[in-house]
Design a protein that fits this description.
By secondary structure, the protein is α+β, with helices and mostly antiparallel strands. It is built from 1 helix and 8 strands; from the N terminus they run αββββββββ. A hairpin with a 2-residue loop joins strand 3 and strand 4.
């Protein structure tokens, strides 16, 4: 009688086949779990980088806009060359009233006061500012302010810092 290799009367899998299947699925599971951990870590780093870029650039842009609109710079109320700099500038609003703005670092947040009244934070709560430095630049033709700001984010155990720089010319001073 002829043996038929395709139709075996003994149904099921052998022990060796079972070990091969289990080891294959074990290796596949390890690869998938490792990939998930890597994706999670990369996502956390991307979130931190976005937070730094968004928070730092937003604060620098707000400070730049305020300086560009300024008519005068108050030398006595401003603190130049310090890591906790203070900048006092004034401008006239549409009704002709003079507004005095004060930009300063309080703790790890950049704040804004208008006519001595706290207006709000210029940085978001996810980042901390460790340095806010203002430098006064005077030439015969113009007046400008150089801004240096260092921000950090220490969520998820990683500490990441970013530096932001800008130089802004006061309006009508060039």
């Amino acid at each position: 009688m002829k043996k038929n290799y395709f139709f075996n009367k003994n149904k099921g899998v052998s022990l060796i086949e079972m070990l091969i299947y289990v080891s294959f699925f074990g290796v596949l599971s390890i690869l998938i779990i490792n990939t998930l951990f890597v994706v999670t870590k990369v996502s956390a780093k991307a979130r931190i980088n976005y937070s730094l870029a968004d928070g730092g650039a937003g604060a620098i842009e707000s400070i730049t806009r305020l300086i560009r609109n300024a008519d005068t710079l108050d030398q006595f109320l401003s603190v130049f060359g310090s890591d906790s700099g203070v900048l006092s500038i004034s401008y006239q609003n549409d009704s002709g009233s003079t507004i005095l703005d004060k930009i300063y670092l309080s703790g790890t947040t950049v704040k804004l006061d208008e006519n001595g009244v706290y207006v709000g934070d210029l940085t978001n709560t996810k980042i901390q500012v460790s340095k806010l430095l203002f430098q006064n630049i005077n030439t015969t033709n113009s007046k400008a302010i150089k801004i240096e700001m260092v921000v950090k984010d220490s969520r998820d155990g990683d500490i990441k810092t970013a530096d932001f720089y800008n130089t802004v010319i006061l309006k009508k001073k060039y």
